[in-house]
Design brief:
With about 300 residues, the protein is of the alpha/beta class. It has a single domain, classed as Spore Coat Polysaccharide Biosynthesis Protein SpsA, Chain A (Alpha-Beta Complex), CATH 3.90.550. Helix content is about 35%, strand content about 15%. It is built from 11 helices and 10 strands. The strands form 2 sheets. Strands 3-2-1-4-8-6-9-7 form an 8-stranded mixed β-sheet, sandwiched between helices. The N and C termini lie far apart (about 35 Å).
């Protein structure tokens, strides 16, 4: 069974076109059902761009089926993704999720579907992720990290049911259990602050709550050693601007074989990610960090 694909788009026609072409370059696309969720314009300034994105979707082929959901109002980043993903996992039991700035490589769907099938009944695994940081060391072909992630991902209904919409509850539980430092990748990345900002209405993030909910349960996400996606939203085109070329892979998209590995967090991979994040802190402004990590953004509605 191939999982349905959910693609969330907003107002970037060039990026959306590239993502669609990337998906169609996957052999499995012809047998996959694609659902495109097009958020409504936030204001008159973006009407033309939203219309241009929707024009790309008319008559779209290359998939088993294409369903376009055009919102008449602006739902915003979190509501758009949460409602779309919830609908699809309830109907199909699993889903592969992309946004309009996450470009899939030619083996993305093969990796995602193979991993979804292999770990379907492994309760310790909450999701599959398509992106890995460009680190300086050799990563395992696949590996697990604690929590969840948001750049080209997939899950099952059993995993998504754990999503907790109440950021205050998540903050309390993380603090009471003494997990704040571990949640912040040993103090290298400010996940707790982003969760506080979400709870305080200063960002519109579904991703930080998804990660926190999975982290609290001690659940794992599978990552590929060779990134299967490239984030093309780091080119300064987003509402909040700025570039972050440090996230861009010079070599990516190689085939990944999903084999049986120990169901435990990879400490070498975790330490490689920590070193990468630590090296980026002086060069990447906090507002760009937030946008890149799915905490804020304009690709599904904006803030």
């Amino acid at each position: 069974m191939l999982a349905p694909i959910a693609l969330f788009v907003y107002k970037r026609p060039e990026h959306t076109g590239r993502v669609l072409e990337g998906l169609k370059n996957n052999r499995e696309a012809r047998e996959s059902d694609l659902f495109v969720f097009s958020d409504g314009a936030k204001n008159s300034l973006v009407n033309e761009d939203v219309s241009a994105v929707r024009a790309l979707l008319r008559g779209l082929t290359g998939f088993r089926s294409v369903t376009v959901v055009e919102q008449s109002v602006n739902l915003g980043l979190a509501r758009s993704i949460v409602t779309g993903v919830t609908d699809l996992v309830e109907r199909y039991g699993r889903v592969i999720v992309l946004e309009d700035d996450v470009l899939p490589g030619p083996h993305f769907l093969q990796y995602m579907n193979a991993a979804l099938e292999r770990y379907l009944n492994v309760s310790e695994v909450v999701s599959i992720h398509g992106y890995s940081y460009p680190v300086s060391c050799q990563l395992p072909e696949t590996f697990f990290l604690r929590g969840a992630d948001c750049w080209g991902w997939a899950t099952w209904a059993r995993g998504w049911r754990l999503f907790e919409p109440d950021g205050a509850k998540l903050l309390t539980r993380l603090s009471e259990r003494g997990l704040a430092r571990a949640f912040d990748m040993d103090g290298v990345y400010p996940y707790m602050k982003m969760l506080e900002d979400q709870d305080g209405g200063r960002n519109d993030s579904w991703a930080i709550r998804w990660h926190a909910a999975a982290f609290l349960e001690g659940l794992l996400t599978l990552y590929p050693g060779s990134s299967q996606v490239q984030n093309i939203g780091t080119d300064g085109s987003g509402t909040h601007g700025g570039r972050a070329d440090e996230f861009v892979h010079t070599s990516w998209g190689r085939p990944v074989v999903v084999r049986d590995i120990p169901i435990e967090e990879s400490q070498p991979a975790r330490q490689a990610f920590i070193r990468k994040l630590k090296s980026l802190r002086p060069s990447v402004p906090r507002r760009i960090w937030a946008r890149l990590r799915g905490m804020v953004g304009d690709h599904a509605g904006g803030i």
